[in-house]
């Protein structure tokens, strides 16, 4: 009797941790949307505006996981995984359009100390949250939480890419660094979407 009870307690603890990770992600990204809107307008930065859109996608992805963790059943899990795939596709499309537009137009944003500070902190926070989701998702055997952890990891890498672009623009005027980094993430996001959709067949 003790073993099943202990297993149930461990699972309940992991589920609570999953909820906590998602609510932390939601709170951070809601604040981020506001901060990024202000800094993007001030600097006329396409990269910061685009990163704000990425934060909206991450909010949607976290909401999907909260919904999935609140229920059970294979149908709900399959729907959640499809929603995660759609989030990756949306992220890839956004990055492709934004990066191409920035390169073709030769858009040069103003310097943004606030944007540099926020993306630096966000890169570290999202990387930590992604690691926590990966561990918790694996322990629970929950592919939805694990998949959303990869969305959070993309968010961390994108924050680092935007940070690099902003820093290089401020330091040496390399305005094209950020859109080039975006193309790398297009491939990553598209690959994750394909993996999620393939695993369901």
Automatic annotation (TrEMBL):
GO cellular component: cytoplasmic vesicle; membrane
Location in or out of the cell: Cytoplasmic vesicle, Secretory vesicle, Synaptic vesicle membrane; Early endosome membrane
Spans traversing the lipid bilayer: 21-42, 48-69, 81-103, 115-132, 153-177
Gene3D superfamilies: Cation efflux protein transmembrane domain
Keywords of this entry: Cytoplasmic vesicle, Endosome, Membrane, Synapse, Transmembrane, Transmembrane helix, Zinc
Coiled-coil residue windows: none
Topological category with respect to the lipid bilayer: Multi-pass membrane protein
Example of a GO MF term: monoatomic cation transmembrane transporter activity
Domain Cation efflux protein transmembrane: 85-198
Key word Transmembrane helix present: yes
Major subcellular location class: membrane
Family: Belongs to the TMEM163 family.
Protein name: Cation efflux protein transmembrane domain-containing protein
Species in which this protein is naturally found: Actinoallomurus iriomotensis
